[in-house]
Amino acid sequence: DAGVTQSPTHLIKTRGQHVTLRCSPISGHKSVSWYQQVLGQGPQFIFQYYEKEERGRGNFPDRFSARQFPNYSSELNVNALLLGDSALYLCASSLIRVDNSPLHFGNGTRLTVT
Amino acid sequence: LAKTTQPISMDSYEGQEVNITCSHNNIATNDYITWYQQFPSQGPRFIIQGYKTKVTNEVASLFIPADRKSSTLSLPRVSLSDTAVYYCLVGDVSNTGKLIFGQGTTLQVKP
After folding, report:
1. Which of A57-61, A96-100, B21-25, B32-36 has the lowest mean pLDDT?
2. Long-range contacts of A48-54 (CB under 8 A, 24+ apart)
3. CB-based contact A45 B98, cutoff 8 Å
4. Interchain contact, B93 vs A107, CB within 8 Å
5. Which of A22, A84, B17, B84 has the fewest CB neighbours in a 10 Å radius?
6. What is the mean pLDDT of each run of 10 residues along chain B (111 residues)?
7. B93: which residues sit within 8 A by CB, 6+ positions away?
8. Using CB atoms, which residue from A88, A103, A108 is nearest to B99?
9. How far apart are the first and last CA of chain A?
């Protein structure tokens, strides 16, 4: 079975631009979470979506938004990019409403903002 | 969500057993303890999860004392390929999907 897939794997953008990152969860997983990982630090939670609804949001500005589609795939959008948005963006999927099922992460999208 | 404290780094040699301890004094009744492994430029990979006592799978063991205020990840006979960052997390992931990662423990396995 395929794991969590993310696209693109690498991306270079200029300050002020907009970016869309995509994620396909493991088949059967209905929850998708997004994390930002800056070099040298642990991942930081951005959003969780389940059944197309936002179920959790981390401490990120409104420039960050996301959505989940009927097939449970998800997009993360970041507007007005800043240099500080350069990071590895990780998507994770999980079964929800199952007793503490662990998150399964993709290998991320490396975003570089110049 | 409970905050965790773990050593920033550890060194070991191939073939040795490695124990990484994590403190989580404010763990809640519904919280599980989960460990992830991360290699450079990859997403974290689930290793093991437990609630109390001892859990063992094909790659690791997790020891949790009765008060659940700490936990120890045990990696038997490590190899060079076990060099990675190991994260200890506590929380009820099924609730919001939000996990709080600390800085993790960077394990360096030497030949």
Report:
1. A96-100
2. A48/B96, A48/B97, A48/B98, A49/A74, A50/A96, A50/B97
3. yes
4. no
5. A84
6. 85 97 90 92 93 94 96 96 94 66 93 95
7. A94, A100, A101, A102, A103, B32, B34, B99
8. A103
9. 37
Q: Specify whether domain B9-110 bears CATH 2.60.40.10.
A: yes
CB B32 within 8 A of CB B90: yes
Q: How far apart are CA B37 and CA B46, in angstroms?
A: 7
- Cα B27 to Cα B68: distance, rounded to the nearest angstrom: 7
Residue range A35-41: average pLDDT? Answer: 93
Q: In what order do the strands lie in the sheet with B61-64?
A: B18-23, B70-75, B61-64, B53-56
Position A46 scores a pLDDT of: 95
Backbone angle region of A30, left / alpha / beta, with phi > 0 → left and psi within -120 to 50 → alpha: alpha
The domain limits of chain B are 9-110
pLDDT tens for each residue of A73-87: 999 999 999 999 999
